[in-house]
Write a structure and sequence with these properties.
Elements lengths: L1 H20 L27 H10 L4 E9 L2 E8 L5 H18 L5 E5 L2 H15 L8 H11 L5
C-alpha cells in the first residue's frame, strides 16, 4: 500500500509540474484601430519677410507699389513712385523707407531701396520666381548683381 501511495504521489507531482509549465492561455487582444494623424490645415498663410517689407513700404503715400527680395538680413526694395520727385526728395524718401522698414523689422541689418525702372523690374521678376517656389540657387548670380548695384558706396 505504501508503494501505491508513493507511486500515485509521484504521478501527481509529474502531472502538476507538466501542467505548471504550460503557458497561460489568454485571448489575443484585438488591436485598436489607429486613426492616421492628419495635420490641421492652416487657415492663414504666414507672411514672408519680403511680404512684410512690401506692406510697410506700400503704406507710404508716395509709393504706388513696391517689390522686395530678402536675402539673409538684407532687404532689396524696388519702388514705383506715384509722382516724379526731385532727386533730393527721392533720396529722402528712400532713406525714410529704409529707416521705417528697419525700425519695424529689427531683424534686417540693411534695407537698400531703388526706384530705377530696370532694377525694379529685375527685383519684381526675381520676387515672383521665388514666390513660385523656384530655388534661389538658380538665380543667385542675378541677386548678387542687383545687390552690387544697390549697396551703398561706403560699404
Amino acid at each position: 500500500m505504501r508503494k501505491q501511495f508513493i507511486f500515485s504521489l509521484v504521478v501527481m507531482l509529474i502531472i502538476a509540474s507538466l501542467a505548471g509549465c504550460m503557458p497561460f492561455r489568454r485571448p489575443t487582444p484585438t488591436p485598436t484601430p489607429t486613426n492616421p494623424i492628419t495635420p490641421t490645415p492652416q487657415s492663414t498663410v504666414q507672411p514672408t519677410a519680403a511680404d512684410r517689407v512690401i506692406k510697410i513700404v506700400n503704406a507710404m503715400p508716395e509709393v504706388k507699389t513696391s517689390y522686395a527680395l530678402v536675402v539673409g538680413n538684407v532687404a532689396m526694395v524696388g519702388v514705383d513712385l506715384r509722382d516724379k520727385l526731385t532727386a533730393d526728395k527721392e533720396n529722402a524718401l528712400k532713406t525714410r523707407i529704409s529707416a521705417d522698414t528697419k525700425r519695424q523689422m529689427p531683424e534686417l541689418a540693411e534695407v537698400w531701396v531703388t526706384s530705377d525702372p530696370d532694377l525694379v523690374t529685375r527685383i519684381r521678376n526675381l520676387a515672383s520666381r521665388i514666390s513660385r517656389g523656384e530655388p534661389i540657387t538658380g538665380f543667385f548670380d542675378e541677386i548678387t548683381n542687383i545687390a552690387k548695384k544697390l549697396q551703398p558706396k561706403g560699404s
